[in-house]
Amino acid sequence: MSATIIDGKAVAAEIREGLKCEVSSFAETYGRVPGLAVVIVGEDPASRTYVNNKKKGCGPDGFHGG
C-alpha cells in the first residue's frame, strides 16, 4: 500500500473556482446572490474567530458573508 500526497491548497483552489462559477450561474438565474447566515450562541471567542474567518472566505467566492 502506498500513500498519496494531496496538495490541499491546490484542491481547495480548484473547488473554489468551481464554486465561483456556480454562484455566478445562480445569481444570473435567480437574480440574487447566495449568502452565509450564522447564529452564534454565547460569547466563545473561538466561535467568533471561526465565524469571522468564514465571512472573509465568502467574499472571494461571490457569496454575501453576513
Can you tell me the residue ranges where pLDDT is under 50 for at least 5 consecutive residues?
A: none
Proportion of helical residues: 55-70%
The number of E-state strands comes to 0
Structural class: mainly alpha
Strand content: under 5%
Largest sheet: none
**Number of separate helices:** 2
User: Any idea what the shape is?
Assistant: flat
Mean pLDDT: 88
Order of helices and strands: HH
If you compute it from the alpha carbons, what radius of gyration comes out, rounded to the nearest whole angstrom? 16 Å
Count up the domains: 1
- For the record, give the distance between the C-alpha atoms at the N and C termini, rounded to a whole number: 45 Å
Short descriptors:
single chain; 66 residues; mainly alpha; 2 helices; 0% strand
Structure characterization notes:
The chain is mainly α. It has one domain. The protein has helices at 8-30, 45-61. The longest helix is centred in the first third of the chain and has 23 residues, at 8-30. The chain has two helices and no strands.
Task: Summarize, please.
The chain is mostly helical and 66 residues long.
Element layout with pairings:
Elements: H1 8-30, H2 45-61
